[in-house]
C-alpha cells in the first residue's frame, strides 16, 4: 500500500469522535478569520480554553490555507489536542494545501478527525483535500529501522460531516496513482532496469484489466526501433518498449496515445554527466512511470476515451558498445538522426515510440511526458512544467486540467524560425541544436525535434524536468520524484 493513512468520510460532529487530534477549519475572510463549522455548545465547545475569536487573536490566525496551531483540550474520553487549520477561501487549491498541512501536523497521532466545512458542497474541493492529505503522507524508504513514532503518518483521517464521499474517493484514486508513479521513480536504478520496469507494467496491467505487449531487444531489432536500441546499446541491461492499453465501454471512443520517456538511469553516455547531475538520474524514467500510473487509474475515474500508453525504456550507459558522437541512427519511422550529444537521449527513445504510434496505432491525439531538458527548468523553475502543442484546443484542455490538479503548465512557443537548428549536415535531423544564432533554446529545439515524429496529429509535449523532482518536503511534495502531471493527465482524460 502506498499510504499508511486512510481517508474516511464520517457523519456527525467532532464531539462524536474519539480521535486524539481534532481539527477545526478556519476560513480567511475580509473581516477576519472565522470557524467555518462551529463547535457544539456542549462537549468540545465546553472544553475550549477560550472562545474561538479570542483564540484566533491569541495565535494571530488569518485563516490562510495550511496555517495551523494546536493546543490541548480535556474531553470525557481524556486529554486530546485541538488544531485550528486554515482553509483559506475554501477553493480546491486551498483545500489541497490544508490537507497537506493537516497530514504533516497529524504525524505521530493514532486517529485524526477533521470537521468538513459545512459551507463547502464543492466536490472538487473534497477531491483536492484528499489529494493533499495523502500525497503529503507519502514516504519512500529502504531503511531497515522503523521511523520514529513522532514521524509516522496517522493511520486514519476521518472527514466528519457532509463531505462528498464520492469526491473524496476520487481524490484517493488520483493520489494512489501518483504514489504508484513515485514508487517507481524513487526505486534505485540498481534494481530498476528496463526489464524490471516491464515486469512492473505487467503487474499493473494484470491488476487493472489492461492489455499489454512488451518488446525485448530482439523484437526491437527485428521491427526497426533503431533509436531505442542506440540509446540502450552502451548498457549490459538491454532496452524495452512496453505498450499498455485501456478500452472504455464505447469501443468507438476517441483514441489517445500517451508516450513516456523511460531512461532508467542516465549517465549521459559518452557525453558523460558531472556527478552532481548524475546523482538525480534514477528519476529520468519519470515519464514512463507517469504514463503507467495514469493507465492504472483510468477505469477508476471512468475515463471515456481509449488510451494506449507507450513506455520507451532504456539505460543510457557508456562502454565500448555505446553510441558514439557523430553516429547516425535510423528511427522506427525511417528518419535518420545524427547523434551530436549522447546526453540528449530522451528525445531519441520518444521519437521511436511516437513514430510507432503514428504508423501502427491510429491515434486521434498524441501526448508525451518527459524529464527532457534542463533548459525547461532554467526557463520556468521547479514549480511549472513546459507545455508545447500543435493544437490550441488540446493545449487549453491540458492547461485547465493542470490548474485543477495544482500542477501548473506554461505553454511555450514552437518557434518556426528555429526549425533549421534541428537539421544535420549528414542526416535528416540532429539530436541537439546545430545553429548558434538562435541562442540556447534547448527546450524548444527538443520539442521541434519531437514534432517531426508526430505525423501532423494533434500533439502535446510536457517537459517536466523542473517540477519532476523535489529536493525537500513542501506541501504535497516529499523529497525525490514528484510524478508531476499524473493527476493532470487523469483529469484531462476523465473529462473533468
Automatic annotation (TrEMBL):
Record's keyword annotation contains Manganese: yes
Cofactor annotation: Mn(2+)
One Pfam match: Peptidase_M17_N
Keywords: Aminopeptidase, Cytoplasm, Hydrolase, Manganese, Metal-binding, Protease
EC numbers for this chain: 3.4.11.1, 3.4.11.10
Binding site for Mn(2+) 1: 266, 343, 345
Residue numbers annotated as active site: 273, 347
Protein origin, superkingdom: Bacteria
NCBIfam families per UniProt: PRK00913.1-2
Name of the protein this chain belongs to: Probable cytosol aminopeptidase
Lineage of source species: Bacteria, Bacillati, Actinomycetota, Actinomycetes, Streptosporangiales
Gene (name only): pepA
